[in-house]
Amino acid sequence: MFVPKRIIFEKKTLDYPIGNQIYQQFFRNKDIEIIEMSKNKIKENIPGDTPKDFHTEGKNTLVVGVKTGLKFQSCKPSAHYQLPLLSGCIGMCQYCYLNTNLGDKPYMRINVNVEDILDQADKYIQERLPEITIFEGSATSDPVPVEPYSNLLKTAIEHFSHSTNGRFRFVSKFTDVDTLLSLDHQNHTEIRFTLNTNKVIQDYEKRTPSMEKRIEAARKVISAGYPTGFLIAPVFLYENWKEDYKDLLIKLSDQLPDHLSHPITFEIISHRYTPRAKQVISEIYPENQLPMQDEDRSYKFGQFGYGKYVYPKESLADISAFFQKEITAIYQNREIEIKYII
Ligand code: SF4
pLDDT tens across 101-149, in order? Predict the structure, then answer.
């Protein structure tokens, strides 16, 4: 569970049950600075003169806010819309896309007007009837570390359990899932976990749980009957990468419950970076050791008009063949689906 160093309450947020609940949870803790803003100027309340210091302080900050402007962003191809319950993440993965996407807003932000957000989701569902509409809860955040006191995922899971045409999904590297296990989710929420080798976690995914802890949380979620999937990402090529990723696949297989209510899905994504991301990462994690030598990569133009440095064709083919072969062999008696390997 995330215990912030400071909590910034935007105006009027204490009038909402979640805002008040968060205040009650933490106001007695003398190690936490509680800031009630009169003007909504968040950045002024977070110290740090350099991008690195501001980023570090931001990662220790929780902002409690009200979501204004309820137009949802689209979220192709994995869902139809982003569900804007939260933004930010407490993890300090050096390669994280949020470093670029959220830029000067590295803090965890919880939106307390969850009812407005879910009402808006229902409107989008109505517009698309009779189709199913899928909402992604982690497009700009990892929502799990604040779940014990925000209950946002619980609220959303229960909301979508009553929805005939609405579905919910989110992905996490974190393990605070216990409050979700007894919910009557009606199979309308899919929970995915991002896994990696312990070497990658130690080298690049600071402040995140170990591979074993993530697998343990996934096991609980599968046992609770949720449709569950695994994102193995980003795959890095280093000496012994095949041994380590095989070890991960075997450990996961060993921990899966005997009975699966749904096929387990796999999505495998190799490491890639944009020139912009590389620049931002070098500012906020100047000591990072990420393999980002442009000359070792191929430059590939994407559908959104900007390019990325990906592993060369031969390496991508090797990654694809490796995971295809190992997953098929290790999970041969289990119901699984490999969605894609890229
Ligand atoms: Fe980014 Fe996910 Fe790491 Fe959080 S856990 S910093 S969202 S990659």
Answer: 887 899 999 999 999 999 999 999 999 999 999 999 999 999 999 999 9
Chain position carrying tokens 């944009």: 274
pLDDT(304) > 70: no
* C-alpha to C-alpha distance for 271 and 269, rounded to whole angstroms: 7
Answer yes or no: is the C-beta of 89 below 6 A from any ligand 1 atom. yes
**CATH classification at residue 131:** 3.40.50.12110
Nearest ligand 1 atom to alpha carbon 138? 7
Instruction: Please indicate, yes or no, whether the overall pTM of this predicted structure exceeds 0.90.
Output: yes
Task: Please report, rounded to a whole number, the percentage of residues in the chain having pLDDT higher than 70.
Answer: 99
Give the bridge partners for 273, in sequence order. 309
Q: 208 lies in a domain?
A: no
Encode pLDDT of 154-199 as tens digits.
Answer: 999 999 999 999 999 999 999 999 999 999 999 999 999 999 999 9
Q: Examine residue 42 and state whether it is found in any structural domain, yes or no.
A: yes
Residue 142 Cβ contacting ligand 1 at under 6 Å: yes
Strand partners, 194: 231
Q: Which residues pair with 189 in a beta bridge?
A: 168
Please choose from 87, 171, 174, 208 the residue to mutate so as to test ligand 1's pocket, defined by most ligand atoms within 8 A of CB. 208
Distance 95 CA to ligand 1 centre (A): 8
Q: Which domain holds residue 57?
A: 1-172
269 C-alpha to center of ligand 1: Å?
Answer: 15
Task: 286-293: list long-range contacts, CB under 8 Å, 24+ apart.
Answer: 286/52, 288/94, 288/204, 289/203, 289/204, 290/94, 290/95, 290/204, 291/236, 291/237, 291/238
Whose tokens are 């307390």? That residue is 112
